[in-house]
DNA sequence: AATCCACGCAACCGCCGAATT
DNA sequence: AAATTCGGCGGTTGCGTGGAT
């Protein structure tokens, strides 16, 4: 893989220049130069990175830092209503596939969305469901913090199963909810958040996603798996990925590009 | 003014699949 | 074909902040 190596090189350079300065300098674990266990990683790369930066950080740690914080174009905070709406809907559809959800929210990281969900939306959903009303009938009930997430299979024959996905890159998305939305940039019109607009239909590019239909289709699909984890992963050939892309009329080109992963983004 | 507590968020951990040797 | 390495993901942890008492 050329890109990740280039990324590591870029990180080394960047880290050497800016270090792990924290603009916010507050919450979370403040980047430090304290020794960090180099678990999982990759001896070689971690040594290279730590030697190159003097930070005693493994490549994984640096990568994470880069992806979630240092990478250009990261949007932080101020999640808009339409973004929030999209998160809710996608979570209902995809489950805790944060990277996949993040792929549909330009500038947002999976970590941020995950945090946002766990801290804000889950509570809101809990209140919503607790009040006996649900704006999003398809959405999964909020996951308790320790719920174990995907390991919990929904009750048989009752609620729907989220699409099980794995490592399906989706970096660009068109959310063509309304005419002129593209040109208007992120300032999504208020009607985006309206249920009758979002409803059970989302437009991605020229493709109208019938979320209800998609989910129904996956509910009925046989690959739910007997392992309680949803079985096969989305990215595997001949499994959900193909099914969904076929369902959506997308169809990748077989080399990992095209299809869901390369939906054009005109949002930003 | 001091203390407590809940919250937000960056970072860490463990696992898995893909790629490479 | 098997073993090893690497990249990526989701879940969890723990620190700092700000509000409440």
TrEMBL record:
<protein>
    <submittedName>
        <fullName>Tamyb10-A1 protein</fullName>
    </submittedName>
</protein>
<keyword id="KW-0238">DNA-binding</keyword>
<dbReference type="InterPro" id="IPR009057">
    <property type="entry name" value="Homeodomain-like_sf"/>
</dbReference>
<keyword id="KW-0539">Nucleus</keyword>
<feature type="compositionally biased region" description="Low complexity">
    <location>
        <begin position="146"/>
        <end position="157"/>
    </location>
</feature>
<keyword id="KW-0732">Signal</keyword>
<dbReference type="GO" id="GO:0005634">
    <property type="term" value="C:nucleus"/>
</dbReference>
<dbReference type="GO" id="GO:0003677">
    <property type="term" value="F:DNA binding"/>
</dbReference>
<feature type="domain" description="HTH myb-type">
    <location>
        <begin position="71"/>
        <end position="125"/>
    </location>
</feature>
<dbReference type="InterPro" id="IPR001005">
    <property type="entry name" value="SANT/Myb"/>
</dbReference>
<dbReference type="Pfam" id="PF00249">
    <property type="entry name" value="Myb_DNA-binding"/>
</dbReference>
<feature type="region of interest" description="Disordered">
    <location>
        <begin position="127"/>
        <end position="165"/>
    </location>
</feature>
<feature type="domain" description="Myb-like">
    <location>
        <begin position="71"/>
        <end position="121"/>
    </location>
</feature>
<feature type="signal peptide">
    <location>
        <begin position="1"/>
        <end position="27"/>
    </location>
</feature>
<dbReference type="InterPro" id="IPR015495">
    <property type="entry name" value="Myb_TF_plants"/>
</dbReference>
<dbReference type="InterPro" id="IPR017930">
    <property type="entry name" value="Myb_dom"/>
</dbReference>
């Amino acid at each position: 893989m050329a890109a990740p190596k280039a990324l590591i090189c870029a990180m080394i350079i960047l880290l050497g220049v800016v270090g792990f300065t924290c603009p916010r300098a507050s919450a979370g674990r403040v980047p430090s130069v304290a020794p960090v266990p180099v678990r999982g990683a990759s001896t070689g790369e971690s040594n290279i990175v730590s030697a190159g930066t003097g930070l005693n950080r493994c490549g994984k740690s640096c990568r994470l830092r880069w992806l979630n914080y240092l990478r250009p174009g990261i949007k932080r905070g101020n999640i808009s209503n339409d973004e929030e709406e999209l998160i809710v809907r996608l979570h209902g559809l995809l489950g805790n596939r944060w990277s996949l959800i993040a792929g549909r929210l330009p500038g947002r990281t999976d970590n941020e969305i995950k945090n946002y969900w766990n801290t804000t939306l889950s509570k809101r959903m809990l209140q919503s469901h607790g009040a006996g009303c649900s704006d999003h009938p398809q959405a999964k009930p909020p996951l308790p913090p320790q719920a174990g997430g995907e390991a919990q299979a929904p009750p048989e024959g009752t609620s729907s199963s989220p699409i099980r996905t794995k490592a399906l890159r989706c970096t660009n998305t068109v959310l063509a909810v309304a005419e002129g939305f593209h040109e208007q940039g992120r300032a999504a019109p208020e009607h985006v958040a309206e249920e009758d607009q979002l409803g059970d239909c989302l437009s991605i590019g020229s493709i109208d996603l019938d979320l209800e239909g998609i989910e129904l289709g996956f509910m009925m699909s046989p690959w739910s798996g007997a392992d309680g984890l949803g079985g096969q992963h989305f990215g595997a050939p001949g499994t959900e990925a193909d099914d969904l892309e076929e369902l959506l009329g997308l169809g990748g080109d077989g080399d990992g590009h095209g299809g869901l992963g390369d939906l054009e983004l005109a949002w930003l």
